[in-house]
Write a structure and sequence with these properties.
With 173 residues, the chain is of the alpha+beta class. Helix content is 32%, strand content 28%. A 7-stranded antiparallel β-sheet has the order 3-2-4-5-6-1-7, with helices on one face.
């Protein structure tokens, strides 16, 4: 497992909250602590939509992805909550790669059904003037093969480099 520390926090926050860099990721959960606290769960509530809307959304996004809000749909709420003269005491954002991203990263490396592929997540945490990202692969069932996690770690680092987000690794354990 690796921990990625972001060097230029202001640049990263612009990518996270103002640019479209992370818009296509799915929101698992986000939390911010300022004068009060905001908690956002990324699960999409099916009962909010009529059956035609839900069917159309799932046919466009795929069954798994339509179950979650994208970061694009939720980031403005977070931005307005934390903006101001003071930095938040805590900002935690847990994002998951979409099915399409997961296929691009893992390719044909796994001969299993899509539902058996691990979810690829990044846990972004800003606290005490430090910003870290922990990439994680969450498997739906036990698997001794952890290569998806390593592939995700490498892909995420390359993604950050392409976006010119400066970082270094804190540890390699």
């Amino acid at each position: 497992m690796i921990v990625i520390e972001i060097i230029d926090i202001k640049n990263f926050m612009a990518h996270l909250l103002l640019k479209d860099t992370f818009d296509h990721f799915l929101l698992f959960e986000a939390r911010a602590v300022t004068a009060s606290e905001l908690l956002m769960k990324g699960g999409r509530r099916r009962e909010w939509y009529d059956s035609d809307q839900w069917s159309q959304m799932c046919s466009e996004r795929g069954e798994h992805d339509c179950m979650h809000m994208t970061w694009n749909e939720m980031k403005e709420i977070m931005f307005h909550f934390i903006k101001g003269k003071k930095s938040p005491q805590l900002l935690y954002v847990d994002l998951e790669a979409s099915s399409r991203q997961r296929e691009q990263i893992l390719g044909g490396a796994f001969a299993v059904q899509d539902s058996e592929l691990p979810s690829l997540r990044m846990q972004i945490r800003y606290e005490n003037e430090h910003l870290t990202i922990v990439p994680a692969a969450s498997y739906p069932s036990f698997s001794p093969d952890r290569s998806a996690g390593q592939m995700w770690e490498e892909a995420l680092q390359e993604f950050l480099r392409r976006k010119k987000i400066v970082f270094h690794l804190l540890n390699n354990s």
